[in-house]
UniProtKB/TrEMBL annotation:
Keyword Ribosomal protein found: no
Sorted UniProt keywords: DNA-binding
GO molecular function: DNA binding; DNA-binding transcription factor activity
Taxonomic placement: Bacteria, Pseudomonadati, Pseudomonadota, Alphaproteobacteria, Hyphomicrobiales
Residue ranges annotated for the HTH marR-type domain, each copy included: 15-152
GO biological process: response to stress
Keyword Methyltransferase found: no
PROSITE patterns attached to this UniProt entry: HTH_MARR_2
Coiled coil: none
CDD domains per the UniProt record, alphabetical: HTH_ARSR
Domain of life: Bacteria
Protein name: DNA-binding transcriptional repressor MarR
Pfam family, one: MarR_2
Length: 166
C-alpha cells in the first residue's frame, strides 16, 4: 500500500474520532474540576481516589484500579503523593493484597473535596441543563459498555492495514 499523507483528510479524522473527542472533553473537564480543587491543593485524579477510598467500595488496590479503569502501576503512582502528604495510609490485607484508607487528615480534606466537587458539578450541570447532563452520562455509559465488549472480543490488536502485522 503506497499512500501519500496528502491523500488523507486528518481534519476529518479528528472530527470523526470518538477517542479524540472524548480525550478533548476529558481534558476540559479535568481543568474545570481542578480549578475548584486547587484551593485544597488537589487535582481531580487525587480527589477521585480519595472519594473511592472513602466510599469503602474498593478494598484492595486491584479493586480501586478496576473501579477507576486504570492499571495498578498508574494507581500506585497516583497513591504515592497522597500517602506522602499523610492523606492515606496503606496496609496489607493478606497475601499480596494492599488496601488504602484515609487518615484523619484525609477524612477532613475529603469532606472539603466533596463540597468543592459539588460546586463544580452544580455549575457544570446548571450550564448544560440537568436533562442534557443525564443524556451525556447515558451516552458515555453506552460507549464504555461498547468498548468493553469490543475488548473482550478482540484479544489481540487487529492486523495493520494492508495485511501486515506489527
Amino acid at each position: 500500500m503506497n499512500t501519500s499523507l496528502d491523500d488523507i483528510d486528518f481534519r476529518e479524522m479528528g472530527r470523526l474520532c470518538l477517542g479524540h473527542s472524548v480525550r478533548q472533553t476529558a481534558n476540559l473537564l479535568t481543568r474545570h474540576f481542578n480549578r475548584y480543587l486547587a484551593p485544597l491543593g488537589l487535582e481531580i485524579t487525587q480527589a477521585q481516589l480519595m472519594a473511592v477510598i472513602a466510599s469503602g467500595d474498593a478494598l484492595s488496590s486491584s479493586d480501586i484500579a478496576r473501579y477507576l479503569g486504570i492499571d495498578r502501576s498508574t494507581l500506585a503512582r497516583n497513591l504515592k503523593p497522597l500517602e506522602a502528604a499523610g492523606l492515606i495510609e496503606r496496609h496489607k490485607l493478606g497475601g499480596r493484597k494492599v488496601a488504602s484508607r484515609l487518615t484523619e487528615r484525609g477524612v477532613t480534606l475529603t469532606a472539603e473535596v466533596h463540597a468543592a466537587w459539588e460546586q463544580a458539578q452544580r455549575d457544570l450541570t446548571n450550564e448544560l441543563g440537568a436533562e442534557t447532563a443525564d443524556a451525556i452520562r447515558g451516552h458515555l455509559s453506552g460507549l464504555r459498555k461498547t468498548v468493553r465488549a469490543l475488548e473482550t472480543v478482540a484479544k489481540k490488536p487487529p492486523a495493520r492495514p494492508g495485511g501486515t502485522s506489527s
